[in-house]
Amino acid sequence: MGSLFLKVSKVLFAAGLLIYGFTDPGWAQRSSCEECHGRAKVDFRRSIHKERGMACVDCHGGDPLDMTRSSMSKDKGFLGKINKKDVPYLCAKCHSDVELMLQYGEYIDEFAVYRHSQHGKILYKKGDTKVAVCTDCHSAHDIKKAEDPESWVYPFNVPTTCARCHSDKNLMQDYGIPTDQYEKYKESIHGKLRLEKKDLRAPGCPDCHGVHGATPPGVDEVHSVCGKCHFPQRNYFQESPHFEAMKDKKINECASCHGSHGIEAPTYELFTSGKKEEGSGCGGCHSPDSREYLLGVRIKNDLLEAEKSFEKASLFIETARLKGFEVDEERIKLKEAKAKITEVLPITHSVSIPLVEQYITTAKAGAEDVKELVNAKIVEWKDRRVMFVINIFIFLFVVILLIIKRKRIMPKSNPPTPPMAGKL
Predict the structure, then answer these.
(1) What is the pLDDT of residue 12?
(2) 280 and 273 in contact (C-beta within 8 Å)?
(3) Helix (H) or strand (E) holding 12
């Protein structure tokens, strides 16, 4: 009995190993690479390349079926650790293959674009291998789809990926590049929207600098880069005197007033800021007593007056609401008036006082119209209250008159005569 149980156990164990071998890819596709490189094996099995059927040999060469050291011989095409300068060429072997990439809907020009990027130029023209190559941004073995939240190039992860190099003072010192871009970006309006609120409409590093063709935009290109999102501002800027100064290389268009990586949400203070630095508004170039600076003061004051008109109109609306009036129509009209200020903000980039004041005047007039409409309702409400009180007094007066009249017209009745004493 014991002998039979042992035989059955062996058969079941062998069957289990056989089944496991067919179902577990690590067992079924045992390779000499994975026998030694355990960490790389774990990372690679989670990658998109493994999912698409690639193996170690596709990048490193060699014979994974040979379990001896001869698997890493030159005769078997073993490349070993890839030289950093050769990494882009190696990746391009597949990623520039039209037929191979077509089935995945991937671009095939990344390598060509990379060669013309700032990274590529430094790598291939200067032979400097400290610059970023494919594996610095995508990782080496654990490469994931860009849509995977764990990917280094997932939209919300890109800034930290770029910061691995661009926040390294030792690495950047040879290039004279500041290392505070990421810290500035995190505190900027763009960084807060993307990193904190997960708003993909806000730009990340590649949206301004490019992806594989990463290059800092020059003075002539900044307006085009920012204009991809802020096209109304760009169009009005091109109508301003600043546009000519930009073409003469006197100002760095958008960055001169708004900054670059540390862009803050613009406020009216930009028109009167006195700081002499990038991103400081009018004060960055114009002295407080200059005609141009006073022009900014005028625009700011006009905008503040419009805001005060909105506040008063809102107060009127709230007062009317608390008194029980329907104020939906007035709220809509006030929103329409405020929309004029939203429209005029891009127009301020033209620095055209007539055009700016045209919109502001319309906005203020709209707020005044709302106040008049609400005031008319309040006056009507007061008139109704007065009339109500008057009607009450009239009613009481009439009632009193009726009572008096009734007493006058009613006949007086004689009191009953008491019976005489002693008379039955």
Answers:
(1) 54
(2) yes
(3) helix 2-23
pLDDT at 179 over 80: yes
Residue where the block lists tokens 């800092």: 216
137: three-class secondary structure by DSSP: helix
- Structure tokens that stand for 139 in this block: 């990782």
Cα distances (Å, whole numbers) of residue 359 to 314, 364, 369, 373: 20, 9, 15, 21
**Taking every pair of C-alpha atoms in the chain, what is the biggest distance, in angstroms?**
163
CA-based Rg of the chain, rounded to a whole angstrom?
41
Query: What pLDDT digit, counting tens, does each position of 206-249 carry?
Result: 999 999 999 877 756 777 888 889 999 989 998 998 888 888 87
Encode pLDDT of 112-135 as tens digits.
999 999 999 999 999 999 999 999
Q: What is the DSSP letter of 46?
A: T
Between CA 376 and CA 397 the distance in angstroms is: 31
Dist CA 6 CA 387 (whole Å):
108
Give the DSSP letter string of 168-183: -HHHHGGGT--S-HHH
